[in-house]
């Protein structure tokens, strides 16, 4: 298993944590080699180098039956290429697992060489795992010979949720940036503020935190918006417990873990209609979808949930049911383990 360190922040780390909580590590003797970690450039380079050397040793000693490679765009792709190549030279099957909503733009904006390398990786992989049907269609269009399989992200579903009393607090979880729609969310909040005196927003995550704090202040929202930085699992659950909605107005996404986690907690969602989100959220059922960049539509969707708490509760419960049926860690990991057995040609007792 090649991917970022589990203790890192971000979507791939959250997926790996879900794998461990779901028991994958105990059922299969998986060795996780961290190819990236949070910290300085030297720490990141050192982590990648140590894992690359260890992978080479394992390949040379014939101890690798299968490689599961998690990658995203830009630096993540080029870094993982250095792991992909020796595995393929050793004739070890590689499952390439695509994450991050920006990969299509990364491909489109790359030069001919970049696009050629990406297509080569897709063709040489035993299979390419994507998060949604939309991604599968796109990948088939750029690499028709690639074996593409849709495998959603897994999420741990709490056995019980308590949402008796809801606040007028909106929650954003993720990287604080323009690409995630954070400035649009503040603009929508400014539109709603006069109508909802108790309305507030928590923007949890790292990124353009100082710039967004300044922007919130310029809109007169300094007392309404909290920027706690990165929050751990327990704090995230506490924030979601009485939230009015989880809001993710991104311009590009895969299948965001934060949406799955919110839905598992019976929290309704308002999100952009991009990437794999429409596969996850049916408009008006588990939440509301808006065009990316449309602040007026975003504000209207949020007002719909704030004005009709009964409908918001129903959407939250529908989202929880959807996650249990399609995205629970037990269901998704069962699919992944079938792929392990198929492509490694062995059972869970003998894969390394």
UniProtKB/TrEMBL annotation:
Keyword Transferase appears in the UniProt entry: yes
Glycosyl transferase family domain sequence ranges: 168-320
InterPro entries: Glyco_trans_1 (IPR001296)
Keyword Glycosyltransferase attached: yes
Tree of life domain: Bacteria
A GO MF term: glycosyltransferase activity
Gene3D superfamilies with a match to the protein in the record: Glycogen Phosphorylase B
Sections of the chain in a coiled coil: none
Keywords, alphabetical: Glycosyltransferase, Transferase
Family: Belongs to the glycosyltransferase group 1 family. Glycosyltransferase 4 subfamily.
Protein name: Glycosyltransferase
Organism: Duganella fentianensis
Lineage: Bacteria, Pseudomonadati, Pseudomonadota, Betaproteobacteria, Burkholderiales
């Amino acid at each position: 298993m090649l991917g970022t360190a589990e203790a890192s922040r971000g979507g791939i780390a959250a997926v790996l944590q879900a794998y461990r909580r779901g028991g994958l590590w105990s059922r299969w003797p998986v060795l996780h080699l961290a190819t990236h970690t949070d910290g300085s450039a030297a720490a990141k380079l050192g982590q990648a180098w140590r894992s690359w050397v260890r992978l080479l040793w394992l390949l040379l000693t014939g101890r690798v039956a299968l490689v599961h490679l998690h990658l995203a765009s830009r630096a993540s792709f080029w870094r993982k290429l250095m792991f992909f190549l020796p595995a393929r030279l050793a004739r070890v099957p590689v499952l390439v697992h695509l994450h991050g909503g920006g990969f299509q733009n990364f491909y489109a904006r790359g030069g001919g060489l970049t696009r050629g390398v990406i297509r080569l990786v897709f063709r040489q992989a035993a299979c390419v795992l994507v998060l949604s049907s939309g991604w599968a269609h796109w990948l088939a269009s750029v690499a028709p010979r690639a074996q593409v399989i849709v495998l959603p992200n897994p999420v741990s579903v709490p056995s019980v949720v308590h949402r008796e009393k809801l606040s007028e607090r909106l929650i954003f979880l993720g990287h604080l940036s323009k690409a995630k729609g954070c400035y649009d969310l503040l603009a929508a909040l400014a539109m709603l503020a006069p109508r909802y005196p108790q309305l507030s927003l928590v923007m949890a995550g790292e990124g353009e935190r100082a710039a967004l704090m300044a922007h919130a202040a310029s809109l007169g929202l300094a007392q309404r918006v909290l920027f706690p930085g990165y929050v751990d699992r327990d704090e995230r659950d506490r924030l979601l417990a009485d939230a009015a909605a989880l809001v993710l107005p991104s311009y590009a996404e895969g299948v965001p873990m934060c949406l799955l986690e919110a839905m598992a907690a019976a929290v309704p969602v308002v999100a952009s209609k991009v990437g794999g989100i429409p596969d996850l959220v049916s408009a008006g059922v588990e939440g509301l979808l808006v065009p990316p960049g449309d602040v007026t539509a975003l504000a209207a969707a949020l007002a719909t949930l704030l004005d009709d708490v009964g409908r918001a509760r129903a959407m939250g419960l529908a989202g929880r049911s959807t996650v249990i049926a399609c995205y629970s860690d037990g269901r998704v990991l069962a699919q992944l383990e079938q792929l392990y057995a198929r492509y490694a040609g062995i059972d869970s007792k003998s894969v390394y």
